[in-house]
Amino acid sequence: MKKYLTLLTLTLSILPLSAKAENIAHLNQLLRTKQCQECDLSQVGLVMANLSGANLVGANLIGANLSRANLMGADLSYANLTGASLHGANLAGVNLTGAILNQTDLRNARVNGANFEQTDLSNAQIDGIIGISNNAFSAEQFFAWALAEDRKGDYPEALRYYNTAIELDPDMASAYLARGIIRARYDRMNIALEDFTKAQAIFTKQNNEEGLTLANQFIELSQAKIENPMDPLGSNQGSPGFVQAVSGVLPFVFRFFGF
């Protein structure tokens, strides 16, 4: 029995070393040949590595650090990049078809010409991402990003994403409503009213009673503010009077948008 336990302990102690050795072998293969299809590269450190044109199809890159790496033209289709860092990386022309980008850090990455087909970016970090194509994603995806920026209080960035969502889907009533709220915060009441009125018309057409109720409430608030413009401009915080007046409506807005 003692001999069996000793053998079992020895076997278990070797297993992690074998896995680590395989990881190192795959890493060396990648750096030597730039060909590492379906390789295990989880948790590897490749900061500022030159991997332009690399074949990483189906690779396991979970938790890998590829910050500021040059991946220009690389093939990362169907790779698992869960929790990986591509912060500031050059991803121009990269093929990310079907890649898993759950909690992937893409902040300040350059993605000009990248292929994001069948790729879900809703849980990725994309602050400051450069070169993202409006045609690469759906209106719903841009709306989701806008809501995320809205929650953080980055209203200019949220506004930019709402604009894109509306360009892609001119009948997205929720985007008009959300954009109108931001415009009203900055005391741009006339164009905010236009957004709320547009949302009202679309919600009416869609028989969306909850959305219509919200649009009507914001129309009333906007009209009251236009008729009685007593509050001064509130710099980055927008119109204090409008924000205070809308506070009672916000819980319904958050629920409607899924905040």
From TrEMBL:
Family matches, as Gene3D superfamilies: E3 ubiquitin-protein ligase SopA, Tetratricopeptide repeat domain
One Pfam family it belongs to: Pentapeptide
Key word Glycosyltransferase present: no
Keywords for this protein: Signal, TPR repeat
InterPro entries: 5peptide_repeat (IPR001646), At2g44920-like (IPR044213), TPR-like_helical_dom_sf (IPR011990), TPR_rpt (IPR019734)
UniProt repeat feature TPR, residue ranges: 139-172
Transmembrane segments: none
Protein origin, superkingdom: Bacteria
Cross-referenced SMART domains: TPR
Signal peptide residue numbers: 1-21
UniProt name for this protein: Pentapeptide repeat-containing protein
